From TrEMBL:
It comes from Allorhizobium taibaishanense. Residues 1-21 form the signal peptide. This is Hydrolase. The keyword Coiled coil does not apply. PANTHER family: AB HYDROLASE-1 DOMAIN-CONTAINING PROTEIN-RELATED, ESTERASE_LIPASE_THIOESTERASE DOMAIN-CONTAINING PROTEIN. Residues 30-242 form the AB hydrolase-1 domain. The keyword Hydrolase applies.
Length: 252
């Protein structure tokens, strides 16, 4: 075997060793990737619950300028963690963790009312396959970004939150670049790593049946919660329970 082959074999062995270690070690790091038309602030209650249970929680504030930018932002946060991480996503964030989950320091994936794509699929492909409620999504003047009309936010996104919370989420939403929604997945991490999925049964942003179908084909461990798309904010205790369940299962 020549030196080049020996070198490639050594790199492959080192990478597989790191990945195995990430899945075998105790998982105490939770990295959350928020969805589009929202930001990370809605995860505060769930974060406080998980931290009270002994976990270290970090929220990625991805720019949603492109899928590649968001995956890179997520990898930067993963690489800051001490030990393996459990990646958690909401909505569009599911697209992000499906790619970023290939980072060898990621032990597993949790999809919270999130897109869980197959290779070659985009968010637009999935959303159009089983339409949900009519969302009042609008374009910015330059035609490059999308946002949810604040007046429709509570009804379309967060129907089970108090009005003041839904209004705050509407005003703090991160606009999404059209190209982020059109980008296609190349290498789904759920094919090689264990995943969990939360179906929000009253979701008007993603069809609950689509959430079920995506979870089924990924062989995810599924939990159903009677909540809106903003299930992470309206039912933080139940969402934290699923995340903790995943972390404990990966730590065995």
């Amino acid at each position: 075997m020549n030196r080049r082959l020996i070198s490639l074999a050594a790199i492959a062995f080192a990478t597989s060793t790191i990945a195995f270690a990430a899945q075998a070690a105790e998982v105490k790091n939770i990295v959350i990737v928020h969805g589009a038309l929202a930001d990370g602030s809605g995860w505060r209650k769930a974060t406080e619950i998980l931290e009270g249970r002994g976990y270290t929680v970090t929220i990625v504030q991805e720019p949603i300028t492109s899928l590649a930018d968001d995956v890179a932002a997520t990898n930067r946060v993963i690489d800051l963690q001490d030990g393996p991480s459990l990646l958690v996503s909401h909505s569009y964030g599911g697209m992000v963790i499906t790619e970023a989950g290939n980072n060898p320091h990621v032990a597993g994936l949790v999809y919270v009312a999130a897109f869980q794509p197959q290779a070659g699929e985009s968010l637009l492909d999935l959303a159009s396959s089983k339409p949900a409620g009519s969302m009042d999504i609008r374009e910015t003047k330059d035609g490059k970004y999308l946002y949810l009309d604040p007046a429709a936010f509570a009804n379309d996104f967060a129907g089970d939150l108090p009005k003041e919370e839904a209004d705050f989420m509407a005003r703090s939403q991160v606009f999404a670049a059209k190209q982020a929604f059109a980008a296609k997945i190349t290498d789904p991490a759920w094919k090689t790593k264990k995943s969990w999925s939360i179906v929000a049964t009253h979701d008007r942003s993603i069809n609950p049946d689509l959430e079920r179908d995506m979870a089924k084909r990924a062989n995810s461990d599924v939990s159903e919660i009677a909540a809106s798309h903003a299930v992470f904010a309206s039912q933080p205790e139940k969402v934290a329970d699923v995340i903790e369940k995943a972390a404990k299962a990966l730590s065995r």
